[in-house]
Description:
Layout: H1 15-30, H2 34-45, H3 51-67, H4 74-93, H5 100-117, H6 125-131, H7 137-154, H8 163-178, H9 181-194, H10 200-213, H11 225-234, H12 241-252, H13 258-274, H14 286-313, H15 322-346, H16 351-355, H17 358-371, H18 376-393, H19 406-428, H20 430-446, H21 453-469, H22 484-502, H23 511-523, H24 525-530, H25 535-543, H26 553-574, H27 578-585, H28 605-621, H29 626-653, H30 657-677, H31 693-708, H32 713-730, H33 733-736, H34 740-747, H35 753-770, H36 775-794, H37 802-824, H38 828-832, H39 836-852, H40 856-873, H41 883-900, H42 909-929, H43 931-945, H44 949-959, H45 963-978
GO cellular component, one term: nuclear matrix
Keywords: Cytoplasm, Nucleus, RNA-binding, Transport, tRNA-binding
Function: tRNA nucleus export receptor which facilitates tRNA translocation across the nuclear pore complex.
Amino acid sequence: MEAHLLQGLWAPDNHQQHAQALEYLQQLRESADGWRMCGATLTNGGPQLDDKVKFVCLQVMEHHARNRYAAATPEEQVHFRQHLSQWMTALCMCTDPEKVFIQNKTAQLMSLVFVVDYPTRWPSFITDLLSTLSLGPHAVQLYLRTLMAIDTEVVDREIIHTQAESDRNTRIKDTMREHGVVELTNSWYDILVKYEKSHPELVCHCHDVIGAYISWIDISLIANDRFVCKLVDHLKEPLLREAAADCIHEIITKGMDPVTKTQLIESFVTVLDQAGVLKPVDDDDSDFLVKLARLINGIGVQLILSWQNINQCLGGLHRLDKKESEKREMVRQAVENKVNLLLTFMASEYDDISAAVFDFARDYIQLIKQMGAITAVERGLLENMLYVVITKTKYDENYNFTQAGEDEAMFDDYRKKLKVVFDNLAALVPELVLQVSKEYVLTTLNRWQSSPYEDVEAAVSLLYNLGEALPASHGNHFSGPSQCLVQVKTSTMQEMMQLLVTSGVSGHSHPAVSLQFFECVARYEKFFTSEPHYIPGILAAFLDTRGMRNPNPRVRSRTSYLFSRVVRCLKSNIVGYTEDILSQLTDLLVLAPIDNGQIPPLLTNDDQLYVFEAAAMLIIAGNTEPGHKEGLMRNLLSPVFAKVTVLAERLAREQDPVNQASIAKSICHATAVTARTSKAFSNQNSIQACGCVQLYLDALQLFINCLNVGVEREVVGAGVRQLMHRLVVCLDGESLLPLLPPASQALLHTPSPAVLTEYLPLINQIITKFQKEMSPFVHTIFMPLVSAIFTALSEPIEENDEEEQRTRRLLQRSYYLFLTTIVSHHLLPVLAALDNTILQQVLMSVVQGAVEFPDPVAQKNCFVILRRLTEAWGVKDMGPPGFVEFLYTQVVPACFLAPLKTTFDLNDAQTILALHESVTCLQTVYRKRGDELITYLRSQYFPKMDLSPELVNEYCQALTSDAKVFRNYSKIFFQRAKS
């Protein structure tokens, strides 16, 4: 073998050498003698070979083992095994340990040969493998790696096998159970004893092997005195105990009879307890404690699973079987005896240790729920669990609120999992959770000034979490039926909320407490509906340095959003404070100057949108006259418009591109602010009823003027489109339609694919709302718009410009949706009035989209267009000249050509919708043209498809059936045609 040629594999920068090396490697793989050369290289060169060459040789031999070894001649197989055995022996006897990746690749190669040859061609494989153990520690390491590789090939459930491979693996395991497993387990015990002091890494690896094989070998081979005592001894050894804990976990999770499993677990727990292992408070090795917690979790989960299996055999709680009931009670008691252990680990100061037993905690709660009545002992255990949950909810003192990193993200995730346990407890024992929560919340809030912030935040979070954990009708925790529990909950929630809003905790200096306070206020807004006298205090908190003027930007940002939520929910209770609130919001409603230097505004642009929306909601919700509302809205928006006027003038003069971009962003933000205020209007308080129509029309004209400045059109145009989308919702056609031509002209000044793609949804929205009123405008704009689209789609682009290609596809899809909107909203006369040549071009583009465009959503829309046109023009003299001919030359063929395309995936849900639409289109042609279509198909179209007479008759009969029958038939028809 020319090993020097392989060096180029590790020189990717030298393209020629790298390409030559790849080519040589491929030659070795594909050559019938490549494995021979590599095997000879390994056995002749031995461990002293270059590591890279070794690895390549093993790769080539692996390729042969996977693809050609099973079909090789007996002589070749013997030769291959000889190379492999010699290489194994060389590795076992070398002075220094081989690199891990070489050992792993060798073990993998051994496993591939094993699954082919054992037990038929190499019945002594296990014996031969065991014989290498006498060669020393290196041999033991390779032996263990080989066993793990065999487990991967034969047992690993995460690997998907063919039926033949599964059958093969079953035969291998059956044979190993009869011949070899006893010898293997004896070797494992010998390794555990012989190397526990000198080579702990071998013992740990042996633990892994036992854990892997225990799932399918006889449990008694491992669950016996000699192994259990040795494993427990290893749990006391710092270098061995993590692997030993994992090994025991695998043993107890092995599938077996529930009573047998319970007895096995109980015996393990007894031995572990006697050995003093189950005392996490006495150990500071967190890595081991995580493993131990995982073991405790496994013990609990497996015991509960055993209880459930017995309970299922009993047929639930209703069938009396004394013997089985005693078994079930025995298992239940075993579970209960482990709960204090669960709570000890769950309360660990290390969150990863605590989280490791969450499955046990959740399953235990579910077990209590299944059993029905709760005993005093169980109630006490659940209460202790609840206290652990509350305590563990607290932030760690090292949590970085300013710059959250990985540790903070891990704690946030831990807290979410902890909340699941809390929710489960609340579902099982709501009255207990309510009582304990009340005690904790009231005690903590009454002394919040002298308590650590962690305790205060935990108390407010606890109150917040009750909102999700406890059921409430329509989210109202402060009223409900007169049942005892509901009344207790209502009064308890009221008491906690009263203390929250009166305790002064809203003024806490820590941002975590501030945020949680406002989250609580927003979640429980219905409290203020029933007790409105607390509203002024809450509004003050939102408006001053506790909320939107808080020193912390996170608090300011979040409270801006929560303020808008509270105003939306409580506007009828707040309108009396409207003008006072507006006066206090004045400085927060000022648009930030573009040259503000390094001084950031109190609120970001996004935050400011919520405040404008809240202000507008307060104005519109009032019981005042329309003129008064209009005046307040004008006062709210006039400063914005004045600022925009100045910015537009400055934009026209500005030459610096950076400053131009900043000004344009400010104008766009002003547009967004204006659009956001329109969300305050509703059916009850419409923009017309409030007298604000002209205000918004003037605003739109102002922003159109900004767009016509001609600088930063894309940014300013985005704002104009956003405002127009909102005004379409609020205004009537008479008010808005006169501004459509100038707005469209400004928006489409430079009709790039991106601009057109953004514009079309706006026109679709307007057409959908105003329908026939849009006819003059659509008639005027249709040809220029379609021409711009065709031009944009035909412009040449770079072949590898994926972004531009994606933009073109989006534009094409938007174009078809635009046409769909026209034909679906009474605007067909616009198309009928087109010059026949232009109409033909449009129609052909639709047919092309239906057949050629590999986008099922667009294809479906194309068939919708063709169907609508057929419905309107499919009868003679009802449509443009030549349309009936177009049906036969283009529409009918499209209904066949599209589904026959290789890109038309009949297993895809969206594509099936496109198929259904094409089928409906064809049936529409039949309804309009009758037997004429059948005659055309029989005499002209189907002969081109070379269909049998029987299939032609079958298809024509289905076509004349009802829609559902034809849809189902068509799918089968095209599946057969494409197979």
